[in-house]
Design brief:
Blueprint: H1 16-21, H2 27-44, H3 50-54, H4 56-65, E1 72-75, H5 82-90, H6 125-138, E2 146-151, H7 152-155, H8 158-167, E3 175-180, H9 191-198, H10 203-218, H11 227-242, H12 247-250, E4 254-260, H13 264-274, E5 281-286, H14 294-298, H15 328-342, E6 346-350, H16 360-365, E7 370-372, H17 377-389, E8 393-399, H18 407-415, E9 422-426, H19 443-447, E10 454-456, H20 461-471, E11 479-482, E12 506-509, E13 514-518, H21 522-537, E14 541-545, E15 548-550, H22 554-563, E16 566-574, H23 579-589, E17 595-601, H24 611-618, H25 622-632
Helix pairs in contact: 2-4, 4-13, 6-8, 15-20, 17-18, 21-25
Bound molecules: thiamine diphosphate, 1-deoxy-D-xylulose-5-phosphate and magnesium ion.
Magnesium ion (MG) binds next to helix 7.
Length: 635
């Protein structure tokens, strides 16, 4: 049995100032306590695990060497920043992490002055940090240092490349720390990953470097003052030996490393040496995702966000899901494979989320027909467009909120040419604990104005399968299907694959007093609310499931407009510009004047919490729908 950690040092660190009072020899102990604290807290209150464990030493070294919060540290994604939170005054409330009204899931400037920028979506740290560095220079804050900490996976994102490109040509003293653990959520992929692997210091190089530096010291050519030049010398030596130019050096960004990211003493030494160097620089750090917790080191994908676990045995505590409805993502993954077996034009595309969206099912069965393109949503869409132009039929699966990155690509590279690409937007609607950066709140509103695009959302798992089948029939053009995070509503997702008439909704039930119009699985909650209202009050309520936002079912809307004085719309998406707005436009365009109450996500960013809590806060959970019905009918 593992001894309980006493957190003797950690409990005295209320801010990085306290950390900086400690002698450097104390840092390994701080790291051990911090690591134990993260393991302990996360075993009870789930969150992003492996990434934070991997950067414990880096986090301690950064706060030890840099004058935070005056110096700006920009974390990329921010899923690795739990150590940062604990060291920056949030230790005692860390148990509230990701809970409603508790600590935010990712660094958030409104929560702490140590959090410098919006985090959540990958690859923005270099651009944001460069902006801060330029601002500091313009304001004459010459002593303010700016650091971007970015993972190897996030470095594969286009935005990171755009940032690097600009860093190389704009005067700045930025430090980019590349935290390379050779993993994204799934395995890192692509040329950047390969390039970084090639940058690994070869054994021969290490031997030569050590021998040379010893000699240089002995000859008096090298001393501590001149160590900085040695790092440069090392890089030239490395380039020479490895016969390739360092891509960062080639872009005028000084490259240092790779260094062992778990040696906190070495890290502090290197950071101290390079922190005040002029000009842009990149420190390449090798870490292990899940470091210090064996199961997480061995199965990094599962332990990216493992849920709760037993910290002694390392076993994940997983709820028994027998008899429960399947995850929507698994219905997608299995159906895609089924369709791919029938239609050899089908290929799958995912930007770095093969496990998250269950495209790993296709990937495993037909590796040559599934593409993980890295954290590259824009590219995923345009790449799909290219394949579609030449006759393939890509199913491009992107989390709804990450698809925001690819808006122009949908319009410019797919919709204008009416290409046959099926966009599957997983995690549509409120996603829960990942909060405002991750809620798939906007897709209905941002997709609706795009010509040529079919937009649908399934009521349940069977409907998802039918929509996927329908979308791959010949010459459908761009087709978007959105569905939520989590489980569906049916116990058996299997059903025959049948065509759905495009633009046709379903009348779920008739009624006379009020029409409730829904889109997507939230319709099930509305149905429950309707049953309750009818049972308790004797009223008569019609329920329409629109199914397609575009083309919208005009016949159905005429029926509603003609027959009802009261309409309630319910959607798991933003009210501004969403399905309710579309209905209102239709009613106005055709001279109908029902009183329309729209339920959905209000015009503000919704915090984190459970989906249930957040729907209630937004006013579209079953209870709220019920009360809206009662209120509308004055019952
Ligand atoms: C734009 C965007 N796409 C996808 C994701 C999902 N995502 C979160 S972390 C992650 C992997 C990041 O890999 P890396 O930067 O190497 O960090 P690590 O997890 O290895 O610590 C991905 C794909 C995201 N947050 N943002
Ligand atoms: C940090 C990040 O963006 C991902 O890890 C995200 O939290 C995954 O979300 P799901 O848990 O819904 O797959
Ligand atoms: Mg990584």
């Amino acid at each position: 049995m593992k001894e309980e950690t006493s957190y003797e040092l950690l409990n005295k660190i209320d801010s990085p100032d306290d950390l900086r009072q400690l002698p450097v020899e104390a840092l390994p102990r701080v790291c051990a306590e911090l690591r134990d604290k993260i393991i302990d807290e996360l075993s009870r209150n789930p969150g992003h695990f492996g990434s934070s464990l991997g950067v414990v030493e880096l986090t301690v070294a950064i706060h030890y060497i840099f004058n935070t919060p005056y110096d700006r540290i920009v974390w990329d994604v921010g899923h690795q920043a739990y150590g940062h939170k604990i060291l920056t005054g949030r230790r005692d409330i860390f148990y509230t992490n990701r809970k409603l009204n508790g600590l935010c899931p990712f660094p958030t400037p409104t929560e702490s002055e140590y959090d410098t920028f919006t985090c959540g979506h990958a690859s923005n740290s270099i651009s944001a940090a460069l902006g801060m560095a330029v601002a500091a220079a313009r304001k004459g804050e010459e002593n303010r240092r700016v650091v971007a900490v970015i993972g190897d996976g996030s470095m594969s994102g286009g935005l990171a490349f755009e940032g690097l490109n600009n860093v190389s040509s704009t005067p700045n003293d930025l430090l980019i720390i590349l935290n390379d653990n050779n993993m994204a959520i799934d395995r890192s992929v692509g040329g950047m990953k390969q390039y970084l692997l090639n940058l690994h210091t070869s054994e021969g190089y290490n031997r030569l470097r050590n021998a040379l530096s010893k000699k240089l010291y002995r000859w008096g050519i090298l001393n501590d003052e001149r160590r900085k030049s040695l790092i440069r010398f090392n890089n030239s030596l490395k380039s020479m030996l490895m016969q390739q130019q360092n891509i960062f050096e080639g872009m005028n960004i000084r490259y240092f490393g790779p260094v062992d990211g778990h040696d906190v003493t070495a890290l502090t030494r290197v950071l101290k040496e390079i922190k005040d160097m002029k000009g842009p620089k990149l420190l390449h750090v090798h870490t292990r995702k899940g470091k210090g917790f064996k199961p997480a080191e061995e199965a990094a994908t599962v332990w990216h966000a493992p849920g709760i676990f037993d910290k002694e045995t390392g076993e994940r505590i997983v709820a028994d899901t027998t008899g429960m409805p399947p995850l929507f993502q698994d219905v997608f993954g299995n159906t895609l494979l089924e369709l791919a077996r029938q239609n050899d034009k089908i290929v799958g595309v995912t930007p770095a989320m093969p496990s998250g969206c269950s495209m790993n099912i296709l990937m495993k069965a037909m590796p040559e027909r599934a593409f993980d393109v890295g954290i590259a949503e824009g590219h995923a869409v345009t790449f799909s467009g290219g394949m579609a132009k030449e006759g393939l039929l890509p199913f491009c699966n992107v989390y709804s909120s990450f698809m925001q990155r690819a808006y122009d690509n949908i319009i410019h590279d797919v919709a204008i040419l009416k290409l046959n690409v099926v966009f599957c937007l997983d995690r549509a609607g409120l996603v829960g604990e990942d909060g405002p950066t991750h809620h798939g709140a906007f897709d209905l509103a941002y997709l609706r104005p795009i010509p040529n695009l079919i937009i649908a959302s399934p009521y349940d798992e069977h409907e998802l399968r039918r929509l996927m089948y329908t979308a791959q029939l010949p010459d459908r053009g761009p087709f978007a299907i959105r569905y939520p995070r989590g489980r569906g509503v049916l116990t058996d997702w299997h059903c025959p694959l049948e065509e759905v008439e495009i633009g046709k909704g379903r009348k779920m039930k008739s009624g006379t007093d009020l029409a409730v119009v829904t889109i997507g699985p939230i319709g099930n909650d509305a149905a429950a609310a309707i049953r309750r209202a009818e049972k308790e009050t004797g009223c008569s309520i019609a329920h329409y499931d629109l199914r397609f936002l575009k083309p919208i079912d005009e016949e159905m809307l005429h029926e509603i407009g003609r027959n009802f004085r009261h309409v309630i719309t319910v959607e798991d998406g933003v009210l501004k510009g969403g399905m309710g707005s579309a209905l209102l436009e239709f009613m106005a365009d055709h001279g109908y004047t029902p009183a329309v109450k729209r339920l959905g996500i209000p015009d503000r960013f919704i915090q984190h919490g459970t989906v249930k809590e957040l729907r209630a806060l937004c006013g579209f959970d079953e209870d709220s729908i019920y009360h809206a019905i009662i209120h509308t009918l004055n019952l």
